[in-house]
């Protein structure tokens, strides 16, 4: 089972996001595949053993960058355009792909190579789906 922490400062928006994603997990009958857990950013270092990856709210990017070398799990910042809008499948795809990058040596804070600044990301779907869409558009143009 993939365990994803949703983290932020006060917990207001991230706890609501984690609850929303858990509700969608239940609706899609994915309870045996994925779990979203709210963890306040100030407790992530002591609780990181509970999850496989931490996905952090955009306004806490400074904190995870400050502590990046202390984490023993992959940590990524949720791009603002995706925060609260991305369906559970897209969160899972991004988590899986970011975990793979981390396992292959990408240091924390983990980002996709073409998205080094999470706050500037414009996509509204998982990175995987966005790349598939970009490739399909490119092929449609005959290039």
From TrEMBL:
| Protein keywords | Kinase, Phosphoprotein, Phosphotransferase system, Sugar transport, Transferase, Transport
Q: Does the keyword Transmembrane apply?
A: no
Pfam families the record matches: PTS_IIB
Q: Which InterPro entries match?
A: PTS_EIIB-like_sf, PTS_EIIB_2/3, PTS_EIIB_3
The family database entries (PROSITE patterns) matched by this protein are listed as: PTS_EIIB_TYPE_3
The protein's GO terms of the molecular function aspect are: kinase activity; protein-N(PI)-phosphohistidine-sugar phosphotransferase activity
Residue positions, PTM Phosphocysteine: 8
Keyword Lipid biosynthesis included in the entry's annotation: no
- Which GO terms fall under biological process for this protein? phosphoenolpyruvate-dependent sugar phosphotransferase system
Q: Which positions fall inside the PTS EIIB type-3 domain?
A: 1-105
Record SUPFAM superfamilies: PTS system IIB component-like
UniProt protein name: PTS sugar transporter subunit IIB
Source organism per entry reads Grylomicrobium aquisgranensis
Name the lineage: Bacteria, Bacillati, Bacillota, Erysipelotrichia, Erysipelotrichales
């Amino acid at each position: 089972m993939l365990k994803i922490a949703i983290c932020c400062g006060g917990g207001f928006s991230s706890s609501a996001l984690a609850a929303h994603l858990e509700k969608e997990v239940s609706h899609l009958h994915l309870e045996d595949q994925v779990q979203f857990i709210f963890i306040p950013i100030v407790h992530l270092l002591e609780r990181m053993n509970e999850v496989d990856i931490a996905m952090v709210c955009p306004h806490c990017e400074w904190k995870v960058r400050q502590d990046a070398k202390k984490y023993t799990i992959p940590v990524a910042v949720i791009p603002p355009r995706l925060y609260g809008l991305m369906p559970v499948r897209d969160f899972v795809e991004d988590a899986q792909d970011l975990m793979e990058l981390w396992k292959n040596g990408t240091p924390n804070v983990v980002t996709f190579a073409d998205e080094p600044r999470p706050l500037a990301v414009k996509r509204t779907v998982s990175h995987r789906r966005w790349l598939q869409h970009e490739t399909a558009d490119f092929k449609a143009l005959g290039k």
